[in-house]
Specification:
Elements lengths: L4 E5 L10 H9 L3 E3 L18 H13 L5 E6 L2 H11 L4 E7 L10 H5 L7 H5 L1 E2 L5 E3 L2 H8 L5 H10 L3 E2 L19 E6 L7 H10 L4 E5 L5 H4 L1 H9 L3
Parallel strand pairs: 1-2, 1-3, 3-4, 4-8, 8-9
Antiparallel strand pairs: 5-6, 6-7
Helix pairs in contact: 1-10, 2-3
Length: about 240
């Protein structure tokens, strides 16, 4: 199996910690794995009111610039808009894009635009709590398992409850700008999660149909297969060339 470098970009409220099972499995297969905390999340202490989608994009681009080979850039949920923006700026640094139950937006679309297109009201949009200054959002504890971790162990749910962080809100409403010349030349794949309650499977299909992907792989899992099905997810990612 050929060596690959994977750069894993976590989703909303999460941090690098969420990838701990997947990282060890990919490394055992001989790959290099990089899993950073995006600014203001995980262990990063950037003030939430300073965060923007361009800040996250440049953060990822700086990591790409230090690599000796093009990476497989993986984005989960909200991480999808981040990897799209980074690929637009550094297409030559990205071997492939992988959207793991992630927001796959076209030019002019924002994450919020897509989230509002779900046929039934989003459990996330219905229940997240916006801070008084409107710079961040949190998910109430009582919705965390149902929304994100329906098939995860009690131990992983307990860990997540300790480590989830307030999510910056500005990137939710920022429209993407991607072009065929840059973003469009990078191969992209989608991994759909058919028991996902955070991003409905119908919306996942709508996105990867509207912006066609080179491959679509299916996991019969909840929103967090990196915790609930790490072996299956590692196998899927290892098959991406």
């Amino acid at each position: 199996m050929a060596h690959r470098t994977y750069l894993l970009i976590h989703g909303a409220w999460h941090g690098a910690w969420c990838w701990y099972k997947l990282m060890s499995r990919l490394e055992r297969l001989g790959h290099t794995v990089i899993a950073p905390d995006l600014p203001s999340l995980g262990r990063d202490r950037t003030p939430v009111d300073r965060v923007s989608l361009p800040l996250w994009r440049e953060f990822v681009c700086n990591i790409l610039d230090t690599q000796t080979e093009p990476v497989i850039l993986v984005g989960h949920t909200r991480g999808g808009i981040v990897i799209s923006e980074a690929a637009e700026q550094r297409p030559h640094r990205v071997r492939a894009l992988v959207y793991l139950s992630a927001f796959l937006a076209r030019t002019g679309e924002s994450l919020l635009d897509l989230a509002r297109q779900q046929q039934h009201p989003s459990i996330v949009l219905q229940n997240m709590v916006i801070s008084q200054d409107r710079t961040s959002a949190t998910m109430p504890d009582r919705y965390i398992r149902e929304t994100f971790y329906g098939e995860c162990s009690d131990e992983d749910v307990a860990l997540a409850r300790l480590l989830l962080s307030p999510e910056p809100t500005l990137p939710f409403t920022t429209s993407l700008t991607v072009t065929d010349e840059n973003f469009g030349r990078v191969p992209r794949g989608y991994i759909e999660c058919l028991r996902d309650k955070a991003i409905a499977p119908a919306l996942q299909k709508q996105m990867y149909t509207a912006l066609a992907c080179d491959s679509v792989l299916t996991l019969h899992t909840d929103h967090s297969p990196f915790l609930s099905r790490p072996d299956e997810l590692a196998a899927h990612l290892s098959g991406i060339t």
